[in-house]
Amino acid sequence: YKNIKNIQFFIEDGVTLPELRQKFSHHFDVITIKQVAEHLGDMDHFETMLKSASDVLAPGGVIFLEMPNYLFPFEPHCKIPIPPHAKKSTIRWIARLFGRIKTENDERVLQSLNMISSRRAEEVFHKLGFSYRNLMEERKLRDIFFGTQKLSTRYRLFTIPILITRLLRVNHLLYWFLKKTDLYPSLSYFV
Questions:
Q1: DSSP H helical ranges for 138-170
Q2: Is residue 165 a contact partner of residue 173, using CB atoms and an 8 Å limit?
Q3: N or C: lower Cβ tally within 10 Å for the chain?
Q4: What per-residue string of b and e applies to 155-190 under the rule 16 or more CB within 10 Å gives b?
Q5: For the chain, which residues score pLDDT lower than 70?
Q6: Nearest in space to 76 (alpha carbons), one of 32, 119, 39
């Protein structure tokens, strides 16, 4: 990026950045928030982070968000299977069962998680009056199921069913089911 002009990179606390908001009001064309939103503790902090980001976003700019989908039956931080809509207490119990909580920091990370799903994220977008595009539903999920994108490690749980449905040429049925139920591993949005 050294040869590209007019690019600035910042790593900031997205919830409490008043100095940055004053200095860079409506300044940035693109803001990337990747694998952060689930660590904000609750949806109020998620909403505050989005408001803060929009304050420094230039007209016509976009926020790129990517985070785990907690409807998917896998928790990526502890690497454990979880039921959809699981509460933190259930996830903590499963993490202990699998021996994934070994230190106080492991406990803090688990306690700080905000169990975001597409529905919860989109409720906040609507509340704030933001338009958005669900990139997972629009593109990534389709590309994975119809063979134009490699399966990522987050899809390990579905590798065999996806491959079998491709061979049987009924992958569109599993794709439709996952799209309707929002059971895909990560959320990706342009807001």
A1: 141-145, 159-167
A2: yes
A3: N
A4: beebeeebeebeeeeebeebbeebbeebbbbbbbbe
A5: 1-4, 8-25, 147-158
A6: 39
Per-residue pLDDT at 79: 85
Per-residue tokens: 9:
């990179």
Cβ neighbours, 10 Å, residue 6: 5
**What DSSP element (H or E) covers 75?**
strand 74-75
Q: Using alpha carbons only, how large is the chain's radius of gyration in Å?
A: 18
In eight-state DSSP terms, residue 188 is: E
Q: How high is the pLDDT of residue 21? A: 65
Question: Beta-carbon neighbour count of residue 86 at 10 Å?
Answer: 18
- Token digits of residue 158: 């579905």
The reported pLDDT for the residue numbered 3 is 67
